[in-house]
Amino acid sequence: MTDSAAAFYEALRDEIETVLIGKTDLVEHLTLSLLSDGHVLMEGVPGVAKTTVANLFARATGLDVNRVQMTPDLMPADITGTHVYNQTTGEFTLQKGPVFGNVVVADEINRTTPKTQSALLEAMQERTVTVQGETLALPEPFFVVATQNPIEMEGTFELPVAQRDRFQLKLDVGLPTREEERRLLARFDSNPDLGPQDVTQVVTHDDLAAARADASNVYIDERVVDYVLDIVAATRDSADVDHGVSPRGALALQRTSKARAAVDGRDYVVPDDVKALAVPALNHRLVLSTDAEISDVSSVAVIEDVLDSVTPPGAEDVRPNAA
């Protein structure tokens, strides 16, 4: 195994940190999802740099990026595209929507209606789009980065379960620490126009392909697979949950754990990889019981309780060819 994945992440992290401060965890999780062919949903109040991080990440990767501002009046065709009549030729021609890009930034996805949100379902799962009966392949790679406001905020529509389940990771974007915010103020005081335009491409398509191969080739021991399955089963058995994690969620946890190992320079998954990613990979997939919602139990708390209840294997036992 080479260090392609580790070098890929480090290059992106260092370049993005020339603009932003205190978002290393977001950059890492975006990298993990890109390397494992997933999508990311970021939630946070306005002003915490959700969209900025997505745009910086896209520019640093050099991938073709399309941004969609999701609003209540947006229609599915505004995302997927439609056939437009050409008066000159007398024929209908396909006008592709913004979904036809390597990186699609769906900004404030829960500001638009569930009908329009569903325009991304086929694209995110099958990497194709059907426009008026014609099925078209999307570019490779295809990576959706969506942002959303907390669902308690006015004017939002909660994403349907099927839509949430398409996201490999859900990241909660919080406020910076006081010291991080102090450094941020100083940086933008000296350079008020600093922004995504100041970030340059630092990796190539070949770098991405090599890093993805690294992540795919990471070894995962049967004991770690059992650990993943035990966590997933525990979510289904929880008294606070009506519907636990689906097999898609189990796959997401396994794939991102392999990517985390690769980014860390290892060719095998350790239990800590799984434990570190359980919350972002699984919490948005749970459907809580009515009693849990009334009691203000959060999905994150359920996953944390599950992690406390499931015993991981020993890290020394999960290396390749371990005795």
Automatic annotation (TrEMBL):
AAA+ ATPase domain span: 36-177
Family annotation (SUPFAM superfamilies): P-loop containing nucleoside triphosphate hydrolases
One matching Pfam family: AAA_lid_2
Gene3D superfamilies reported for this sequence: Magnesium chelatase subunit I, C-Terminal domain, P-loop containing nucleotide triphosphate hydrolases
Keywords: ATP-binding, Nucleotide-binding
GO molecular function (one): ATP binding
Superkingdom per UniProt: Archaea
Family matches, as InterPro entries: AAA+_ATPase, ATPase_AAA-3, CbbQ/NirQ/NorQ/GpvN, ChlI/MoxR_AAA_lid, P-loop_NTPase
Name recorded for this polypeptide: ATPase
Native organism: Halarchaeum grantii
Source species taxonomy: Archaea, Methanobacteriati, Methanobacteriota, Stenosarchaea group, Halobacteria
